[in-house]
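Changelog note: in this version the structure field was regenerated for every chain. One regenerated record is shown below for reference.
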Amino acid sequence: MSNTFQIYLISDSTGETLDRIFLALKAQFKNINYNVNSYSFTRTENQILKILEKAKKNNNSVILYTIVDNNLAKYLANKSNEKKIPCFGVLGNLILNFSKILNQKASHEPSAQHVLNDEYYERIEAIQFTMNHDDGNLVNEIDKSDIVLIGVSRTSKTPTSIYLANKGFKTSNIPLVNENSLPLKLKDNPQLTCVIGLNTEPERLVELRKNRMNSLRETENKNYTNLVNIKREIDEAKKTFKKYKWPSIDVTRKSVEETAASIIKMHEIYLNNVK
């Protein structure tokens, strides 16, 4: 029998929620091989039967699903049981239990989280703002930012900014060359908005910068990748963060999601302090 598990992710919407849940799930089990088969917008019994026929042909098939239509979810569960395929609903019990707590029936509407409401348009606006204010652009509009990220080169400023924008935060990021590279607005009023510094371990930064140079097929800039220079850069950055009383995060070995979660918490603290 093959040791590779065939994972079938079945969703009645985009499948984004299910993808994230499975990523978190498989991170708990090391040294297991998976083949992932994703099926989005699955909303008919006929679609389900076709998927189950494929799953039945493979060894070690497992089905995970997010289907909010009760009848269709039951159909999938029953048919999977008939074919002896392990099948798990990710949201079913959660929706039912939450409905009981709130004393309100769930709408059971697929893609309900993707409704084009005010929150959706605010998120799109945040993404546009963040793209326009990447890498030190339009610093004269820094006061319009919800969050400003400052750090030396290759401290994940841009990907973290984009992630925050997808959460609805208008985010600017500014490369820190030295203190003189800071916008005057921030130097004059350090608490103008929520400013957070990003730093990392020097040795890790050497690796990142060398990889960056290789990917661009550029001749290595000795100063840019020199460990002594990088240590000096990071020390100066930490002094700058301390001088202006900006909280900072060491992003070494942190994912963008983990860094963003810490930033969002710091943003909450900032808002509470300025009330």
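Spot check on this record: The beta strands are 4-11, 33-39, 61-66, 87-89, 147-151, 171-175, 194-199, 248-250. The mean pLDDT is 87.
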